[in-house]
Each structure stands twice: as structure tokens, then as C-alpha cells.
Write a structure and sequence with these properties.
It is built from eight helices and six strands, in the order H-E-H-E-H-E-H-H-E-H-E-H-H-E. By secondary structure, it is of the alpha/beta class. The chain has a six-stranded parallel beta sheet with strand order 1-3-4-5-2-6, with helices on both faces. Helix 4 runs antiparallel to helix 5 (114-124), helix 6 (140-156) runs parallel beside helix 8 and helix 7 (169-176) packs antiparallel against helix 8 (181-198). The chain is globular and about 70 Å long. The N and C termini lie far apart (54 Å). 34% of the residues are buried.
Length: 210
């Protein structure tokens, strides 16, 4: 009798697709390779961190900031695709503006376990990209009930994280600490956590290249 066997290419594609739990970047970036990245000094520094992560010698995070259009999202997407091809996932590449608003809405709608399930997913995936970090809706709850739990879990478990932002870490501290004294303390805690995990901020400048 004839037996239908999925072709290797299809199986490989299915395995690749399963690597992404969330993928908030354009589909046409899925075929990009590391060699497609512009090799500026800053990008080389960020890429070295990723290569060290692949080799098992780096457990810190990457923090990319700079002007809009400087390629932070593209760079992080290409790294994510490479990681997916290496089966290093699951991976969540999330747009903070959209996904944190969703989480906030779900929390206040009290939709069963959806909120905690999503928090756990973002906290526990081997690779998380926080794109457009700092431009999300801000509140005490977002800071204390969403961002801090995710970031602190990932820090304590050594999980690879990439953060793309218009803002420096010091500016993030200011943005999240503007409500009251307790908020300032928690915002400082988040900023210190980011500094400890990232080690350095890699600024891609203000020149648009994409």
C-alpha cells in the first residue's frame, strides 16, 4: 500500500513555525539571515552578545536604543529568525504597545486565567524580544503587575532577552517613576535590573537606514 510521508522541507518549515509563540514583525523578514545585517560597530557589539549566547557563554540581555528607523526591530527579528532556525525557542517577539495593552485589558476584564497564562508565557520562553519598549501604556499596574514580574523572572532564571526602545534605561526609570514615591522605588528597581542584565546600552544612533 502507498504510504504518504511529509517531505523533509515541510517538516522543517513546521518545526520553524512552531518556534514562534508570538511574532510581531513582518512576514517578509522571516527569510533574512545574519549576513543581511549592516555591520556597524554597534551592531557588531550586539551580534557578539547573541553569538556568545548561542555558544552558551552569555546569559545577559541586549538593550538597543536610538532613533526611529535605525533598525532595532529588524536586527532583533533577524536574530530571532536565526534562533528559530537553530531550534533555540520557543520565542516571543512582542510589540509592547499592543501586547501590554492587551494584557492590561484582559486583567481588568477578569477573563479567567488568560492574564496569568500570558504573563507566564512571556516570563518563561527561552527567548523574549520586547519591541518598542517604553512606548506602551503606563500605569502602576502595568509597572508592578506586568513588567516587573516578567523581567524579574527572566533575570532570576537567566533567560535571553532583547529590548528595543526609543529611550535609555534612565529615561525608562523616569517614565515609570512619575506617579508617587513608591512608584519611584519600583521604577528604580526595574532600571537597576535592566542595567544588571544588559550590562551596557547599545545605541544605534539617529540615522534612518530602514
Amino acid at each position: 500500500s502507498t504510504q504518504l510521508v511529509p517531505c523533509k522541507a515541510l517538516l522543517k518549515q513546521m518545526a520553524f513555525d512552531k518556534q514562534f509563540k508570538v511574532r510581531d514583525f513582518p512576514e517578509d523578514w522571516l527569510n533574512k539571515k545574519l549576513k543581511d545585517l549592516d555591520e556597524t560597530l554597534e551592531r557588531k557589539r550586539a551580534l557578539k552578545k547573541y553569538v556568545d549566547f548561542i555558544k552558551g557563554g552569555y546569559s545577559g540581555w541586549i538593550y538597543l536604543n536610538g532613533g526611529i528607523g535605525t533598525g532595532r526591530s529588524y536586527f532583533s527579528a533577524v536574530i530571532s529568525v536565526d534562533a528559530a532556525n537553530r531550534n533555540l525557542g520557543p520565542i516571543c517577539y512582542i510589540n509592547c504597545v499592543n501586547r501590554i495593552r492587551e494584557l492590561n485589558d484582559v486583567a481588568f476584564a477578569k477573563k479567567g486565567n488568560d492574564f496569568q497564562t500570558t504573563i507566564d508565557k512571556y516570563s518563561q520562553v527561552p527567548i523574549l524580544v520586547l519591541d518598542d519598549f517604553g512606548n506602551e501604556f503606563k500605569s502602576d499596574f502595568v509597572r508592578d503587575g506586568i513588567l516587573y514580574p516578567i523581567l524579574s523572572y527572566r533575570a532570576s532564571h537567566g533567560l535571553f532577552t532583547i529590548i528595543n526602545s526609543d529611550f535609555s534605561i534612565e529615561e525608562i526609570k523616569t517614565l515609570y517613576g512619575a506617579t508617587n514615591k513608591a512608584g519611584e522605588i519600583r521604577a528604580k528597581q526595574i532600571a537597576n535590573l535592566l542595567k544588571n542584565e544588559c550590562g551596557e546600552e547599545i545605541n544605534l544612533g539617529d540615522l534612518k537606514i530602514y
